[in-house]
Amino acid sequence: MNHPAPETWVEFVYDELSPPARADAKAHLNVCPKCQQAVKQLSATLTLLDQDKASLVVPRRRASAPAWRPVVRWALAASVVLAAGFLAGRASGPSRSDLQREVATVRRELQTQFEDELRAVTATTVSAAGDENRRLLCEFARDLQAGRTADRRDLLAALDLLNQRRALDTEALHASLVTLARRTGTGFQQTGSQLNLLASYLPAEPVGASPHFSTPDK
Amino acid sequence: MTWPFSQTDEQAMWRVQTADDHAAFARLVERWETPIQRLCARMTGDLHRGEDLAQEAFTRVFSRRGDFEPSGRFSTWLWRIAINLCHDELRKRHRRREGSLEAPNDDDTPGGAETLASDSLSPSEVAEKLEEAEWVRQALQRLPETQRSVVILRHYEGLKFAEIAEILGIPEGTAKSRMFAALERLAVLLRHQRPD
After folding, report:
1. What is the interface size between A and B, counted as CB pairs within 8 Å?
2. Å from A9 to nearest chain B CA?
3. Percent with pLDDT over 70 in chain A
């Protein structure tokens, strides 16, 4: 009979086999007393291990250690790794509790110093930022005003030029019209004189004929 | 910077790596302190030494924060650091030939183990349970370290064999076969230790 590998029974007791693999393992157990015994022993051992699992808890703080919160203690250990080494080298054979007290004192001093410096830097930065903002606003307002004045000046100059050009154009147009009118009048007069001259050359028409122009006396 | 929602271990470790964020580091410690202490206590058989080793593990996490690969799992990295520290401790102990299975008593609790008394059990039942637990603890110390670490990570800390294999740097099949061998050995040890 082929038996599954030992690892299979470990997965079986921890219920980590896939459904098909578990079905195969169960089918084998039904017909194999040796594997049944092996699985039974595994399960019994795991049950015994659970006794230790249920009973072991994280120990209370030892009486000699300071009663710090775990978070503070671990963060302190991380942040003063180098400082702890320095203090350990400086002091000759300090006890663990002395070292921890020194580290706590150094940490408190560093914390206070850091907060004071942070406040001072923040105040200076905010004040400087405010002054700079005010200066920039004044400059902007001045620039804006100067810009508006220049724009007005340019606009008026452009309007004046436009008016001048319009006046010149009007004058030129007037002169042209007058010239045209004169030429036109002269033309009409000449045309009338020519027509009269022509009419004088025509034979006399009987009475009732079309009117004619005045003829010169004979 | 405070996170409005629960921060993953990898997010917290990223903050520790890039900004030396002590608050993020403290959150990691708070989350993992107890499991790592349990691991170290069971590996060494010494509850108080386990506490010290756990502290060393977190100190090492902080000092080697640059070594953490952001693409990996923080838990795997932390377990590996703690296991390696335990192996180092046991090697030193073997060299010193301490071989002690009992932690020095700093308090009044017998056997150096601090336990919670159960309200539902009688004193004699509690004593019997404590005794059984102590047998198991002693048997665990008699396992080879390679088997002990697999048993602790799988049975006590609930890790899957795939992650255990990654932590220990072994194939998954090897982790399972070590577990089987450890359970067989424990069965023999407990049979001999417990009185009939």
Report:
1. 124
2. 8
3. 74
